[in-house]
Specification:
CATH class: Alpha Beta
Structural class: alpha/beta
Shape: globular
CATH architecture: 3-Layer(aba) Sandwich
Strand order of the largest sheet: 5-2-1-6-7-11-10
Strand content: 15-25%
Order of helices and strands: EHEEEEEHHEHEEEEHHH
CATH topology: Rossmann fold
Number of helices: 7
Helix content: 25-40%
Radius of gyration: 16 Å
CATH superfamily: Class I glutamine amidotransferase (GATase) domain
Number of domains: 1
Length: 208
Amino acid sequence: MHVAIPLYSRYTALDAVGPYTVLAFAPGCTVTFVAAERGPVTDDQGTLTLTATASYADLPDPDVIVVPGGLGTLDALSDEALVGWIRQAHQRSRWTTSVCTGSLLLGAAGLLGGLKATTHWAVMDLLRRYDAEPVSERVVTQGKIVTAAGVSSGIDMALTLLAQLSDVETAQAVQLTIEYDPQPPFDTGSPHKATEKITERALGLLAG
């Protein structure tokens, strides 16, 4: 099972690394970071770089696609090399997935029309541009397309996906292996739970 995670300028690191960690532990899975060209690609904080070991041309037909989001997603929507690769790879993929604003790239590739999908809460309405129905859920499965909400939900999505790729016990074993047992110190991980003041501050962090 070959999993491809495309990198582009100013992706969010956890969007890519969360699913990578889950799927890299799974027996029989090979995970490859891809980009327009092989080499380093820097995240949206400008301080963390991952290396794409393959180009889009090197890996045109992965079994699974995991598209991360990030502060650079809106610029990436006009990157036809990236969007075109997603569109073409989807034709043969077993699963096509996204984390956070990566779902907007699925939309730009024409994959979300008439489907339910999720993304980061701050840009949820942008899904309507692609004739998708925004859903405020952690993970949304529509056929072979799986979208995850913001950033950390990529781990949930990858575990959900792994249960389908393999079986529930394998997914559970990987969850235990990475000791994914969320117990957040604050109950503000959703705009439905956070105060208006905290929400405004979060939007300021995103804008900054």
